[in-house]
Design a protein that fits this description.
The chain is mostly helical. Helix content is 77%, strand content 3%. It has one domain: Hemolysin E, Chain: A. The chain contains eleven helices and three strands; from the N terminus they run H-H-H-H-H-H-E-E-H-H-H-H-E-H. InterPro entries: HBL.
């Protein structure tokens, strides 16, 4: 039975950015694209209102728009389940982690949290050290009983975190499977709309290609800012940018100077492109742009769910390792007190306190930033105006 002296520290629960491990780009980006699904039109009336298309064009496309919107409604419900149930479940786990870190690390005995000291890992270590000095079998039995009860309490709390995390993994896998099915249906319905448009007005492939290139360029422009917001644990804010897709409104708000000039110019290019096409095919241009933006969002959701699952599973593995180390320590106390006291003799309690309290602070930052307000919508014109103002021109 081998237990290292640093086994009781929260190794791996902080990521390379020194944040709680779930505060990472994959998880944050997943929520952004899910919001794109939540905002999908689920009725024909909502679809017309969203794209502001004429009665004439809507009538021409009605036989393909109706099944498309029906597919959107299903995808929307799946995304709402993620937003309303799965994502809050992830945040709820963070609250359990916060509570565990606060109790495991404890605080100095004269602090406000001094009453929680007996729940801390350092207190367990102190009890084990006392075993080396007691002579009374009755006192030794009492200490062993206390140690076992405290370790059992720690393990029970860890099991609670793992159980909730495994439930989140199951929900994420269900969401992934549903989204994959949605993608297949949406591709079929999207192709039907595309073919109908082509039959009505000819090929719009050039428009689609150029819009997709702009989406890629804008995403690349925003990547650095979104990463900085994630690392800083800034509460994200999302907005649907017509014909382009979901953007991080909080990240856009942080763009100034030359970079704002560059981004404004990019948006103005998109506006001109759309304006040029709308002179010939106003409604059809909106249909195509919206269609491909949604297709891309579903692709992005699928690409991000699996990394999110892997992150949560990794977290479960870390907690299970901590629980196993505690169980091994408990067994050691029951079978070989000298080995147990030798192990804890090498543990620096101040370091354990520091590590768990650092995790507590990072998890609290994560919780505070995790509650996202409802996503909004923004037009290309309004975004252009905002960026020009931030650029100072």
């Amino acid at each position: 039975m081998v237990v290292s002296s640093d086994a009781f520290e929260p190794k791996g629960l902080l990521n390379s950015d020194d944040n709680y491990m779930l505060q990472q780009a994959d998880v944050v980006q997943l929520l952004k694209y899910v919001w794109g699904g939540v905002l999908l039109p689920s009725t024909e009336s909502e679809y017309r209102s969203r794209l502001q298309i004429s009665n004439d064009v809507f009538t021409k496309l009605s036989d393909v728009i109706k099944p498309l919107v029906q597919a959107y409604a299903v995808t929307k419900e799946h995304c709402k389940v993620f937003k309303d149930t799965t994502y809050p479940g992830i945040i709820n786990i963070a609250s359990d982690v916060y509570n565990y870190a606060q109790n495991a690390g404890g605080s100095s005995q004269d602090s406000y949290y001094g009453k929680l000291w007996f729940l801390s890992l350092p207190y367990i270590f102190q009890c084990i050290r006392k075993l080396d000095h007691v002579t009374s079998e009755e006192e030794k039995a009492r200490l062993i009983k206390t140690i076992n009860e405290l370790v059992d309490m720690q393990v029970k709390n860890i099991d609670k975190i793992c159980t909730k995390s495994q439930a989140v993994v199951a929900d994420l896998r269900t969401f992934h499977d549903n989204t994959r099915k949605d993608q297949s249906i949406l591709q079929e319905r999207s192709t039907a709309v595309h073919n109908k448009l082509k039959a009505e007005v000819g090929s719009l492939d050039d428009l689609e290609t150029k819009l997709q290139n702009y989406r890629i360029e804008l995403n690349n422009d925003m990547a650095e800012y979104e990463y900085d917001k994630t690392v800083a644990c800034t509460t994200p804010a999302y907005a649907w940018l017509g014909l382009i897709g979901m953007i991080s409104a909080a990240a856009v708000a942080g763009v100034y100077g030359d970079k704002a000039v560059k981004m404004a110019a990019r948006i103005d290019e998109v506006r001109k492109l759309i304006s040029d096409y709308e002179q010939k095919f106003e409604d059809e241009t909106r249909v195509v742009g919206d269609l491909r933006a949604i297709d891309k969002h579903v692709d992005n959701i699928l690409s991000l769910v699996e990394p999110a699952i892997q992150t949560v599973e990794k977290m479960v593995g870390i907690w299970q390792a901590i629980a196993n180390d505690l169980k091994n320590l408990k067994d050691m106390v029951d079978t070989d007190i000298r080995q147990a006291t030798a192990l804890v003799a090498d543990i620096v309690e101040a370091k354990v306190l520091e590590k768990w309290n650092a995790l507590k602070e990072k998890v609290d930052k994560y919780r505070q930033a995790a509650y996202v307000s409802d996503a909004d919508s923004i037009s290309l014109d309004d975004l252009s105006k905002q960026l020009h103002e931030q650029a100072g021109n």
